[in-house]
Design a protein that fits this description.
The chain contains six helices and twelve strands. The chain is an alpha+beta fold. It has two domains: about 10-85, Arc Repressor Mutant, subunit A (Orthogonal Bundle), CATH 1.10.10; about 115-230, Jelly Rolls. It starts with 7 loop residues before the first helix and ends in a 5-residue tail after the last helix. The protein binds zinc ion (ZN). Zinc ion binds near residues 2 and 5. It holds the Pfam family Cupin_7.
């Protein structure tokens, strides 16, 4: 059961193709397993096509288009309500089963064999990180792997952080996050995630800027993180 979804702003940017590649990757992976957001994207695409057909997009700024999206979303005009035929399709048909340790389709270009084959870098006895790619201009896409029951060092973000849970679960002071949950944290957020005791946790993470550890690990980890993140020099 997925409880945390991308915001409507993120989904709209995704549908409009204006979301950075790194962030799109997280959204695509979430969509593979979230029927609710798939429906939302379909709705946004229908609205986009509808507005485009009416010539509304010409000479208009993207922000205006977004305003229209939100307005139309809340209005639910009759001509945009899905036809009964579209509703015949059983819910969840498009949603893949989320098998244990199955690599999501969106990530197969980066993870060809399996999680174990990646180039994991050990940052502490219980915390490993593997970079999938670094986007030009800064964002880092990585997998983090934390042992069952482990506390991650307290850290803050100098940029936004998106986390998508791929395996296992973790919690922080705001809640418990399980497979498929999409968590977006801004720079002001300081938190200490704890992995549940039953299994290790693997997450897909997009960092706009490298994380900074604020606890006793700071001296040990920050130079490693900086070395590991080529855009932070
Ligand atoms: Zn969702």
């Amino acid at each position: 059961m997925i409880n945390y979804h991308p915001s409507i702003e993120i989904l709209t940017d995704y549908a409009a193709g204006s979301l950075p590649l790194a962030h799109s990757l997280c959204v695509s992976t979430h969509l593979e397993h979230c029927n609710e957001c798939q429906q939302q994207i379909k709705k946004l695409e229908t609205l986009g096509a509808h507005l485009f057909d009416q010539g509304h997009t010409e000479h208009r700024q993207l922000s205006n288009l977004k305003d229209s999206f939100f307005k139309r979303l809340t209005e639910e005009p009759e001509d945009l309500v899905e036809s009964p035929q579209a509703n015949k399709k059983p819910v969840n048909e498009d949603v893949m089963q989320w098998d244990d340790y199955k690599i999501p389709n969106s990530l197969r270009q980066f993870i060809t064999k399996g999680y174990n084959e990646l180039n994991w870098m050990r940052l502490s006895p219980s915390f490993k990180i593997a970079t999938l790619y670094n986007e030009e201009g800064g964002a880092q896409v990585a997998l983090t792997r934390i042992k069952a029951g482990a506390h991650m060092p307290v850290h803050t973000h100098t940029g936004d952080e998106i986390t998508l849970v791929l395996q296992g679960a973790f919690s922080d002071e705001s809640g418990v996050y399980r497979k498929g949950d999409f968590i977006n944290r801004d720079a002001s957020h300081k938190h200490q995630p704890i992995v549940t005791k039953d299994a290790e946790c693997i997450c897909l993470t997009v960092l706009d800027a490298p994380i900074e550890f604020t606890g006793w690990f700071a001296r040990l980890l920050n130079p490693l993180i900086r070395r590991y993140h080529p855009h932070s020099h």
